[in-house]
Design brief:
The complex is a heterotrimer of chains A (456), B (387) and C (86). Chain B has helices at 18-29, 63-81, 100-115, 125-131, 153-166, 211-217, 292-305, 351-367, and strands at residues 8-14, 34-37, 53-54, 93-97, 121-123, 141-145, 149-150, 170-172, 177-182, 188-193, 196-205, 225-234, 244-247, 262-269, 275-281, 313-324, 331-334, 341-345. Chain B has 387 residues and is α/β, with parallel strands linked by helices. The radius of gyration of chain B is 21 Å and the shape is elongated. Chain C has a five-stranded mixed beta sheet with strand order 2-1-7-5-6, covered by helices on one side. A two-stranded antiparallel sheet of chain C has the order 3-4. The radius of gyration of chain C is 12 Å and the shape is globular. The chains are: A alpha/beta (456), B alpha/beta (387), C mainly beta (86).
């Protein structure tokens, strides 16, 4: 018999919902995450917060508490970093490393698996983006929510996407001097698409609250401005933003929080054979049916990995998968709510586009790990016949470092697309998501694999 | 039908991998007009899935060794020609063993190799420790092959193609060969592709692991089949491995399974500081599904050679499909069955090393000049009815 | 909120229950704690969720630990001046 009826990988809002729902259906459930606590990035919290009934510092905290209560019968395996999911005869083998320091080999068998691994942030490189003190908006937020630590005392929050307002507001409440917010898109265009309006109501209400708070604290919010440079020697100390018409503004800072959207973390699904497609924001996502099933029997995908759309959508999808794996019907209204969220997500994608890579100077790095510059990638396209992601990687080493292309993959794809005249999809976004192991594993851990994986 | 005014070439080379690139370069240098086609991009097949080895140490005396020695010399000539760095390293190889049985087979192998002109030096355990300080202490002796080399195969291919283009060759990527067009006399007049016909007098099948499929489309079938291999890549490490190191002992898995799984430990470092671990062989067609136990065997064997690798982290694994023929020799030379078809594929795990000689021989064969070595052993007709 | 000490480069640094190692370092005023292999560039926290592999530290003798994932524990020994197993 398998160790569990269902293993849920990723304990963010989506995974928590899936695990809770599957457990309610009477199944034996394990919920895995590489972090020390549940919640993912959205509900990153300090241990004491879990006891609080309400919290200004967190969104929908009541929802977190409610779902947590329903995880009573679920084996929560924290500090388990899953590096591969293998379909076998009767289900799946889930391979994980327990402990970021201890690095112990873990192997769990399951009849079904739900992958809810979320997304990491996407940053389009700009001059100075690798300076210390420059971090993702979510990264800065996780310091605050997870430890009560501010990333800096004087910050600019820049990029594109609804996360910027959320993070700026959070920083402000924590006493950080938020000197400016720069949004590269023009959010007023949300209203142009009637099909997205029904999702807008609560969202625009939220957004309005953040904007009011920022305004009452005299924080300028510049729409149509993108970050073009971070300056400093050992740490960022100045940020330059610019509008499309070339109007520039500069700010003294000690941290820059930047986000240009999200890149779903798909490698476990891809390795397991799940089909993928390119979503309206250019992200590679898993293809699922209305029960959140992938084309691999018993393998479900929920949340950002099926399309970047926020926590509420992710939770709904988690519920659907949890019911589907337990064989319970899903009410039609759940599907309708999911459809509403997806329409709104598409509207967001249309507005919050990542800036073009074309302006990145040749001497600026595109690959942080291997320290490959944009110029090297462009030269490889010009001189070595590079016209796709794979050859770009193998010729320049971009994407061959420890993060295996997570931070630079999309930027390298865009550079190659511009240089070769091919569409990004042709240049092949999927290559970047082929990662086995999903995270580095020691030779000892691998060497323990001795028998062919047959049944569970 | 070829469109009016479409260019005609002397030669179409099918395959923009290392062998196709060497052929294109040699042919262009000989003054022929060349068009290289590939259904993918530059080096999108097995060329980019291996380790970039240029070896003599793993070759038994015979035609393959002769080809390897010729090819190794040509690599040095090529380096002078190529405009950019291809990271050629004459790092040398070491075969090690810890058993008496291994000792005996190593002695026999190296004696034969020396007789054929390979430099092979017996090394005792002290000397072994000098060559490779991190080798497991229980390894007794080995043989050092200073002539083994490594190159970055993607860069080498790209730069060779670039040189070929400087000499007039044309590169048409994302173009798939569908068939061959012959004239009334039976000689090749064009190849058919998914983007139209390309008129030519010769077509070189340098399609690597897809050489069998392409050869069928050219009506001159040769039995090139895929042999899957996995490679582990570690995070960048310090000075752990200096040469290409392999174990002479085949640890409990010269298998009798249907897939013919074989693994043999091979460990080497790269310029970027990562360590590559191989090597596995399986006959599973083009099945890309990973076998975790095979990865496990590679890891265990590497750790047995270099205990310090135990806590090193593997950041990536990848697989490739070596092109092999039933007798493990490549197919090189004109195919008498279709006048104008020339083969240059089936190099199994030695394609990088053997590519320059293959390119030279193909160019010589096309020009009708004497070839640097006999092609009989590589004949496309040697397979009899099996082809 | 319970607190404890960890050792960072030989010195005691305050940590709180639930801190990641990265949080400890940032609270201690650091924006960078590692240098890159080729360009010797300073790096610290970037993505904050274990994806970018920039925030690596040595913990209790184990190299390449992601500071934003590893929880700080009492008496943990953190070394930040590693230069990537040069």
């Amino acid at each position: 018999m398998a160790d569990y009826d269902v293993v849920v990988v990723g304990a963010g809002p989506s995974g928590m919902a899936a695990a809770a729902q599957a457990a309610a259906g009477g199944l034996r459930v394990a919920l895995l995450d590489q972090q020390s606590r549940t919640g993912g990035a959205y509900w990153r919290h300090r241990p004491a917060d879990a006891e609080a009934e309400a919290s200004d510092a967190h969104h929908d905290w009541a929802t977190f508490r409610r779902i947590t209560a329903r995880l009573e019968g679920v084996d929560r395996l924290m500090q388990h970093a899953v590096w591969a999911i293998e379909p076998v005869a009767d289900g799946f083998v889930v391979r994980a490393t327990r402990g970021e320091v201890a690095r112990e080999r873990v192997r769990i068998s399951a009849t079904a698996v739900v992958v809810a691994t979320g997304a990491h942030e996407r940053v389009t490189p700009f001059r100075g983006w690798t300076l210390p003190g420059v971090m993702t908006a979510g990264g800065g937020q996780s310091l605050l929510k997870g430890a009560g630590v501010v990333p800096g005392h004087r910050v600019v929050v820049a990029g594109s996407g609804p996360l910027l307002l959320v993070v700026a507001d959070g920083m402000l409440r924590a006493g950080v001097d938020v000197v400016a917010v720069a949004e590269a898109g023009h959010p007023t265009t949300y209203g142009l698409r009637p099909s997205s309006w029904s999702g807008l109501v609560s969202r625009t209400g939220e957004a309005a609250a953040y904007i009011r708070n920022l305004a009452s604290n005299r924080v300028p919010v510049h729409a149509g401005y993108r970050v073009v440079e971070a300056r400093g020697t050992d740490r960022v100390d100045r940020v330059v933003i610019a509008s499309n018409r070339g109007r520039r503004r500069e700010y003294d800072v000690d941290a820059l929080l930047v986000s240009h959207g999200f890149t779903p973390q798909l490698e476990l699904l891809v390795t397991a054979g799940a089909g993928t497609r390119v979503d309206s924001d250019g992200s590679l996502v898993a293809v699922v049916d209305d029960q959140q099933r992938t084309n691999v029997p018993g393998l479900f995908a929920t949340g950002e990995v099926t399309g970047v759309g926020g926590a509420s959508l992710a939770i709904l999808e988690g519920y659907v998968a949890g019911r589907a794996v337990a064989g319970t019907d899903v009410t039609p209204s759940l599907h309708e709510r999911i459809a509403v969220h997806r329409r709104f997500a598409r509207a967001m994608h249309a507005v919050h586009r990542a800036p073009s890579i074309a302006d990145l100077p040749d001497d600026e790095l595109v690959c942080r790990c291997e320290e490959v510059s944009a110029g090297e990638v462009r030269a490889a396209c010009r001189e070595l016949g590079v016209d796709d992601a794979r050859s770009a990687k193998l010729m320049t080493r971009a994407g061959m470092g420890l993060c295996q292309g997570r931070m630079c993959g999309r930027a390298v794809t865009d550079l190659v697309a511009v240089a070769s005249g091919r569409a990004p999809d042709e240049v092949s976004a999927e290559r970047w998501a082929v990662r086995l192991p999903a995270l580095p594993v020691t030779m000892d851990e691998l060497a323990a694999e001795t028998r062919p994986s047959s049944g569970a | 039908m070829a469109s009016v005014g479409a260019p005609a070439y002397d030669v179409v080379v099918v395959g923009a991998g290392i062998v196709g690139a060497c052929c294109a370069f040699e042919l262009a240098r000989a003054g022929l007009s060349v068009c290289v086609v590939d259904r993918g991009g530059v080096a999108s097949g097995t060329t980019g899935a291996g380790e970039g080895n240029i070896l003599v140490s793993d070759k038994a005396p015979g035609p393959e060794l002769e080809l390897a020695l010729l090819s190794r010399r040509l690599w040095f000539e090529l380096i002078d020609e190529l405009p950019g760095t291809v990271e050629l390293e004459a790092k040398g190889g070491v075969i090690v063993t810890g058993t008496d049985g291994g000792l005996r087979s190593l002695a026999a192998l190296s004696a034969g190799q020396r007789a054929s002109g390979i430099e092979a030096y017996d090394v005792d355990s002290d000397r072994l420790r000098e060559l490779e300080p991190h080798l497991a202490p229980d390894l007794l002796v080995g043989v050092h092959y200073p002539q083994d080399m490594q190159v970055q195969p993607m860069l080498a291919t790209a730069h060779l193609l670039r040189r070929a283009r400087d000499l007039g060759a044309v590169l048409r990527l994302r173009t798939e060969v569908l068939g061959v067009v012959t004239g009334s006399g039976g000689a090749v007049t064009a190849i058919a592709t998914d983007r139209g016909e390309i008129a030519c007098r010769w077509v070189v099948n340098a399609a690597g692991t897809w050489g069998g499929e392409v050869s069928s489309r050219l009506r001159a079938p040769v039995p090139v089949l895929p042999r899957r291999g996995f490679i582990l890549v570690t995070e960048p490490l310090g000075d752990v491995v200096r040469h290409k190191v392999y174990g002479a002992d085949y640890v409990d898995n010269v298998a009798s399974s249907a897939e013919g799984l074989e693994t043999s430990p091979v460990v080497e470092s790269t310029r970027s500081g990562t360590v590559l671990v191989g090597a596995s062989r399986e006959r599973v067609g083009f099945d890309p599904t990973v076998r975790f136990d095979v990865l496990g065997q590679l890891a265990a064997q590497a750790r047995a050679l270099f205990p310090v690798l135990a806590t090193a982290r593997v950041q990536r694994t990848y697989r490739g499909f070596r092109p092999y023929c039933p007798d493990h020799l490549p197919v090189i030379g004109p195919d008498p069955r279709v006048d104008g078809v020339v083969h240059a594929c089936g190099h199994e795990g030695a394609g990088i090393g053997l590519a320059p000689a293959t390119g030279r021989l193909v160019a010589q064969a096309l020009a009708g000049t004497p070839t640097s070595m006999p092609l009989d052993a590589f004949s496309p007709l040697r397979f009899g009815a099996a082809a | 909120m319970s607190g404890f000490d960890v050792v960072v480069d030989g010195a005691a640094v305050a940590a709180q229950d639930g801190d990641s190692v990265a949080a400890v370092l940032v609270r201690d005023g650091r924006a960078a704690w590692r240098r890159t292999r080729h360009g010797d560039r300073p790096r610290g926290l970037f993505c904050g969720m274990g994806a970018c592999q920039d925030c690596l530290v040595v913990v209790d003798g184990v190299a390449s630990v992601r500071a934003c994932v590893a929880p700080a524990t009492p008496g943990m020994v953190v070394t930040t001046s590693e230069s990537d197993r040069g």
